[in-house]
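Incident log, structure service

09:12 report received: a user says their structure output differs between two submissions of the same chain.
09:20 pulled the input from the user's history:
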Amino acid sequence: MRNRLIVSLAAAGLMLATGIGTAEAASAATPTGSARAAAPTAVGRTTGAAVRPAIISGCSATYFCFWNNENYNDGPGKLSGNNGSWYAFSHSSCPGGTWANCASSLDNAGTSGMGVDVYSGLNYGGDVACISDNATYSDLANYNYPGTSTNMNDTIESNEWTWAC
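09:34 re-ran on a clean worker, output below:
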């Protein structure tokens, strides 16, 4: 009986340490794309022993946030899971009336340590860039998808959380 208890406790600890059985793991998926964007460096917010960048005003911990304009203006949109189509999320000041092809600033304020792959196409298609845990981008006009000449500004149509940044 004692051995079963020890094995059960060890398995539970391993599950918690790896995120198995948590909401974050349920929405996590690792994409097959290999090109990733390098994340900018930032400092500020603290969680446990780790120093984290300050969460941009309007965003909240645990979310991937985005704004219509550079420098975190007009928003934010907030997502906490994988989304195959940003056309499902309305935002009246975006040209198409949805967040699809409308993001100009980003903040990965997630708390799991995961990055967010952003895609230029629906259902995780097209060009991909990984927004590392705690990364902020104030103006996507300054960034191209890795390995391409495609600018990231106003081109994101889907997102997926990943451990592979």
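09:41 both user submissions now match this output. Likely a transient worker issue. Closing.
09:42 reviewer note: The beta strands are 44-47, 50-53, 64-67, 77-79, 105-108, 115-119, 128-131, 136-137, 158-162. The CA atoms of residues 65 and 78 lie 5 Å apart.
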